[in-house]
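User: Before I run my own analysis I want an independent prediction to cross-check against. Here's the chain; please return only the C-alpha cells and, at the end, one sentence I can use as a sanity check.
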Amino acid sequence: MLTTFQRLARVATDEFSDIVTRVAWVGGTPSNPNKLRLLMRDESFMDVWLSDDGDYAYHWEQRRQSGKIYRWDNALIIRTSVHFPIICTMETTIRLSQVI
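Assistant: C-alpha cells:
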C-alpha cells in the first residue's frame, strides 16, 4: 500500500500544491502506513485510507475551520428495495458530521 500512498502523495503535492501544503503517513509503520494525511493551506486535513481488497475512505477534518467533518467511503450498505423486496442494493455513502 505504501507505493499507492506515495503515488497519491505525489499527485496531491504536484497537482494541488495551491491547497495541499504537505503530506504525512499516519499510523502503522513507515513501510506500511495506515493512512495518507494531506495537510491543507487552511490548516484542515484529509485522511485517505485504502485496503488491499478495494475498500477506501476519505475523512476531511474541518472542525477548527467550520465545525464540520466530511467522510466518504465505499462501505457496503445493503438495503432492500421497497418496490422489489427480493433485490438488494449497494451504494456509496457520504456523511457530514456537524460538531456541536
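Sanity check: The beta strands are 20-26, 35-40, 45-50, 56-62, 68-73, 79-80, 88-89, 93-98.
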